[in-house]
Amino acid sequence: MDEAGVKDKQEMQAQRIAILTVATNIHAIRWINALAERGLDLIVITQQPPLPGDYHPSVRFVLLPFRGRLAYLLNALVLPRIFARTGAPLLHVHYAGGYGATVWLSGIRNSLISVWGGDVYDVPGRSALHRRAVCGALEKAALITSTSHVMKAQVERLGVSTPIDVVPFGVDTDRFRPGLHPKTQGRLVIGTVKTLARKYGIDTLIRGFDLALRDSHFRALDPELHLVGGGPAQQEYEQLAVSLDLGDRIRFHGQVRHDQVPAILSGFDIYAAISRDDSESFGVAIIEASACGLPVLVSDAGGLPEVVEDEVTGMIIPRDDPAAVSRALLRLAADPALRKKMGAAGRQRVMRLYEWSACVDAMIAIYTQIIGSGVMTGRQNGFARLVQRATKPRGPLCVPTRFAKGL
After folding, report:
1. Per the domain annotation, does 70 fall within a domain?
2. Cβ 226 vs Cβ 191: under 8 Å
C-alpha cells in the first residue's frame, strides 16, 4: 500500500459511521464486527435490540423508539434527529425495504444503501407505494452496494440511476476450511445450511434425494440428508420426509450458531442449495461450503450461479426439478475423485474472489470514497421538516446504557 493509502486507512480507522440495520441479523453482525475490529467507531441505529455477546465491545447502539408493523414508518419521524446526534458524516443503511422506507420518509439523502435481495426483488412488487419507497430511497442514496452482479442488474431494472458497487459477503477461509470435523466413514452425507422456508427449495432437495435412493448403488453408500436450520416450513418438511418414508435418512438439526457451521460443513460430502426464488441473490452458505472443500450442487436461481463455476467447483441445475437433483447426486456420489477435485477448485475460487478481509477492505474504501468526496449524509425534504417540527421529541434520546454512550 502506498503512503497515501496508508494515510487514508489510518484516518478511516478513527472515522465514525452510523449503521441502520436489523441488529439481530447474522450478516449485519459479521459486517459490523469486522469493521469494528478495523478500528472504525460504529453506532448502530436499530429497532431490534441486539443479543448479548453478539457484538464487538466498541460498538454502540441507539434503539429507535417505535416497534411493530408501523415502526418503519413512525421511526422516520425521529431518525434525522437521532442520526444528527451521532455526529457521523455517513449513514450506512442495510436493506432497502423496511429501513429504506424509513430513510425515504425521513428525507435523509446521500446515505449508503446495501441491498440484500428480497428488498429489490420482492418488496417493489407488493404495491406501488412499496416500489416508490424502495426506489425513492435508492435514488436519493450517494451510492448503492450489491452483493452480486445479478442483483445489481435487478436494481438497474427498477430504473434507479444511483451508482452501484458490487461488494460480496466474504468468507474467512481460516475459519471455513477442510478437515475441521471427521467425515462419517462408510456413509455419504449430503447437507444444506438454510432457513427452512419455501424460497430455498428444501422440498425439491428432499424429493430429489428420495428419487436418488431408488438407485441401488446410491443406497449402498448409506446416504443421509442433513438439514441444518430452522424456519416456518420445518414441520411441513418433516411431514414430507415421513410421507416418503425417509425418517431414518433425513436429519433435522434445527437452528445452530454461526460459529458451529464450519465444523458442520466439514462433516458433509456434498453441499446442496436448491433455491427457487431469484431473491436468493447471493449464496453465502455456498461459498462457505466451497471454502470447506465441498463440491456444491445449486439451482439456477438468482445469484447462485454467480458463486459456482459449473462443472468446475460444482454443478448448476434447473430450479424446482427433483429429477435433476437426483441425477446430480447420483453422479457426485459415484465419483469421489470428482467430488475432491470440485471441492479443491471451489476453495481456491473462494480464496481468490471472496476472501473476507478483502471484502471488508472494499467496504472501508467505499466509506473513504464517499466521505472524501465531500458528499455528506444529510436531510431533508420539506415534508419531513414539517413533520419533525410537529412531532419533535422532548428531552434526551432514549438510549440505554452502553447503547450510544456519550451521544
Report:
1. yes
2. yes
